[in-house]
């Protein structure tokens, strides 16, 4: 069943928030989609009333996907992440650019073309941001890593995944010299939601940089012994 571009954007956003927080709140959806909370509420009420329902919505309790909605969301995510991988590996676009382009192109791919891209890329398991790519049946490996903010001070780490849900975030990480495979140590975590200070390994030298909690929450790492 075909869905509008807007519905697909909502399904993908709800999926991400539900995976991270258990439920998608209207305020969080509004921030992620860049629209007003009132517009979000109106849209999700409409989606919840439209048969067959893709979402379940209870006022003041947030939004969750139905089984049908989850299946549709995973299909969108598969298209998006395969597109990102194709644009990166074949056309050489950077990880911020591929995300922006895939946001538009993901709505216009047939399943035949999605399958052809998958075969051409030899069935990749993750995209340029380290996010897992669902297979044709909808199965998806568990996302790698833990949030950078979850590490204790003096813990060494390696970056394995970035959640590109903030506009311009990936370009900003490029400016800081942070990418998949970057290694470093958590130097300090300021109180009251302040920045996280990192000591980054850069060849044979080290440098310190500080990043805000909102970004650090979207960087996933594995501890290094």
UniProtKB/TrEMBL annotation:
Similarity comment text for this entry: Belongs to the DtxR/MntR family.
InterPro entries: DtxR_MntR_Metal-Reg, Fe-transptr_FeoA-like, Fe_dep_repressor, Fe_dep_repressor_sf, FeoA_core_dom, HTH_DTXR, Iron_dep_repressor, Transcriptional_repressor_C
Sorted UniProt keywords: Activator, Cytoplasm, DNA-binding, Iron, Manganese, Repressor, Transcription, Transcription regulation
Compartments where found: Cytoplasm
Protein name from the UniProt record: Transcriptional regulator MntR
UniProt-recorded Gene Ontology molecular function terms: DNA binding; DNA-binding transcription factor activity; protein dimerization activity; transition metal ion binding
Pfam families: Fe_dep_repr_C, Fe_dep_repress, FeoA
Amino acid composition bias (Basic and acidic residues), ranges on this chain: 123-132
Classification via Gene3D superfamilies: 2.30.30.90, Iron dependent repressor, metal binding and dimerisation domain, Winged helix-like DNA-binding domain superfamily/Winged helix DNA-binding domain
Region (Disordered): 123-142
Functional summary from the UniProt entry: In the presence of manganese, represses expression of mntH and mntS. Up-regulates expression of mntP.
Subunit structure and binding partners: Homodimer.
A GO cellular component entry from the record: cytoplasm
Domain of life (superkingdom): Bacteria
Keyword Membrane among UniProt keywords: no
Keyword DNA-binding: yes
All copies of domain HTH dtxR-type, residue ranges: 1-66
Species of origin: Desulfosarcina alkanivorans
């Amino acid at each position: 069943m075909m869905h509008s571009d807007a519905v697909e954007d909502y399904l993908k956003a709800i999926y991400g928030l539900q995976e991270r927080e258990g439920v998608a709140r209207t305020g969080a959806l509004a921030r992620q989609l860049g629209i007003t909370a009132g517009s979000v509420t109106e849209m999700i009420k409409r989606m919840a009333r439209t048969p067959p329902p893709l979402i379940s919505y209870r006022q003041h309790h947030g939004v969750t996907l139905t089984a049908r909605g989850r299946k549709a969301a995973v299909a969108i995510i598969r298209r998006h992440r395969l597109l990102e991988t194709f644009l990166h590996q074949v056309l050489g676009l950077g990880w911020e650019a591929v995300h922006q382009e895939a946001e538009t192109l993901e709505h216009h791919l047939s399943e035949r073309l999605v399958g052809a891209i998958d075969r051409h890329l030899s069935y990749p398991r993750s995209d340029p941001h380290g996010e897992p790519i669902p297979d044709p049946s909808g199965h998806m490996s568990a996302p790698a890593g833990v949030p950078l903010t979850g590490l204790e001070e003096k813990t060494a780490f390696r970056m394995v995944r970035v959640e590109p849900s903030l506009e311009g975030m990936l370009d900003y990480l490029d400016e800081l010299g942070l990418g998949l495979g970057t290694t470093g140590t958590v130097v300090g975590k300021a109180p009251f939601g302040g920045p996280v200070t990192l000591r980054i390994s850069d060849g044979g030298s080290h440098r310190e940089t500080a990043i805000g909690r909102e970004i650090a929450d979207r960087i996933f790492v594995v501890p290094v012994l």
